[in-house]
Amino acid sequence: MDRFAEDRASSKKCSLSIIALTLFLMALVLILWGRSWYYDLDRLPRGTVLEQQQSPNNKYTLIAYLSDAGATTSLSLLCELRFNDGNAEHKTIYFQKDTDAVSIDWIDEDHVTINGHQLRVPDEIYDDRKE
């Protein structure tokens, strides 16, 4: 094999390696983006308000929604935490699929139980898709 043919073969291998690496990185980015999109609670549709309760110190309002994402999904429960001081954005802290009922019990000003799951507000989030 002459020098020119060896250079072409080496260049072809390098090009194929770059293409393979690029495709792998694109697939990885799509997978990571898709996963974060799937678990993004803020993109879920709000539906009918089932219940609304204020925390004992009136710092928070918890609103429970019955979420219906369409014909191919079951009803889900979505709970949004609102900060009554008006300085922070609303935050979705609870998602449970395959349910249409809610039970909310404030334990104290920073702890709430929603359908048997205790959360420390505003930091903890329950998403049953992650279990």
TrEMBL record:
It comes from Saccharibacillus kuerlensis. Keywords: Membrane, Transmembrane, Transmembrane helix. The chain crosses the membrane at residues 15-33. This is DUF5412 domain-containing protein. It comes from the Bacteria. The keyword Transmembrane helix applies. It holds the Pfam family DUF5412.
